[in-house]
Amino acid sequence: MTEAAPRRRQRVVAVGRLPPPLDGTARVSEVMVAVLAEAGLLTEAINIGPPDDAGGRNARLRRLGRALRACWRLGVLRRRGADTLYMPCDIGLAVGLNVLVAAAARLLGYRVWLHHHNFSYISRWQAGMAALVALSPRRTRHIVLCAGMGAELGVRYGWVWRWRKAAPVLLPNAFMVPAAAGATRPAGPLVIGHLANLSVAKGTVRFVALFRRLRLRGVDVIARVAGPVGDAATRQALEAAALEFPGSFRWGGPLKGAAKRAFYDAIDVFVLPSTSANEAQPLVLLEALARGAAIVAIDRGCIGCDHGEAPGAIFPDHRFDDDAERYLATLPVTMEARDRSAAAALAHLRRLNADALERLRLLIDEMGDA
Predict the structure, then answer these.
(1) Which of 243, 235, 227 shows the shortest CA–CA distance to 205?
(2) 18, 218, 248, 351: which has the fewest C-beta neighbours closer than 10 Å?
(3) Which of 269, 286, 241 is nearest to 338 (CA)?
């Protein structure tokens, strides 16, 4: 996957939320663990994520137990030569587990690299993240997804960020997604797609409403939706659309592997009207571009910074519904237009991927240096 640095001694302990269950953060963490292992740097990977067979208070207690065990393992591995902690940052109350592990690493003399995947504690100051910055070692490296994320972290946590001499290191998620052109689609109806953990926050209900408005104004459009459903309002909207437009609204469950690639291959435009406070750098947008689909999304997290030059359009939240409808209603769907859009999507993704791979190489080099 990567052109990693030459193999060095094993010195890195990775502590974080690893699958199962699988979500965006766990997926990136799993890949980073594999990269560290491939580079010869990984000593051990320790999962402090939620158990998949427990809920409520029991799950929180078991996560705390996992974090305490991680602290103990840091002490054991420090005596065996480990000196670097890699840890993705969690959200909500789980940031407290990050604080516990980072504080233990500081006491044990570890260098620390924190990996950020979330904008909820950047858009709004949170005590847990302030404590994590404060209790991590001086000059902790903070891996961020885009330049704006690093700058906003520094502003949001101000004096404590400067006091700890925290340093942002840029690593976009595009290193995980190489370009791989999908099948050429012939002329025909516009096909829009939406794949996510389907919910109101992820914009699924707004996607359904957008599709309905396009059909009612006479646009020949097909909608494809996939993913697990997370709330009653979303399920109701999907069921209603499937009944109202049985020939043009296609709703399926979670997709993986070849089925997921086929989903992207079948669409012209991937639509993500997400308003989630956690939204940072959605992998689904990169995956859609990698198969030649254009993207239409709300400008949240790193989306505008990343994809301002991608085929498609990025709109602010308050203008999305009207502007996205207008944009899609006038989008040409000839074979020539589709070929041009697909070529632009692949070129954009290749640029992102090449830049991210080079940044990953530099990050691994720095992490491996004494």
Answers:
(1) 235
(2) 218
(3) 269
Residue 5: pLDDT over 60: no
Q: Which residue has the tokens 């505008």?
A: 304
> For residue 52, what are the CA distances in angstroms to 67, 101, 294?
16, 22, 35
- For residue 224, the domain's CATH number is 3.40.50.2000
Query: Same structural domain for residues 20 and 150?
Result: yes
Report how many domains make up the chain.
2
Q: What is the mean pLDDT of the chain?
A: 92
149 and 212 together in one domain:
no
pTM of the model: 0.90
Distant-in-sequence, close-in-space partners of 89: CB < 8 Å, separation ≥ 6? 95, 98, 114, 115, 116, 117, 118, 121, 129, 132
Determine, yes or no, domain membership for 180. Answer: no
Residue type for 40, please? G
Q: Which segments of the chain are extended strands (E)?
A: 12-16, 42-47, 84-88, 111-115, 141-144, 167-170, 190-195, 221-226, 249-252, 269-272, 294-298, 312-315
How far apart (Å, rounded) are the C-alpha atoms in residues 93 and 366? 31
Clarify whether residues 27 and 129 are in a common domain.
Answer: yes
Residue 151, domain extent? 12-170
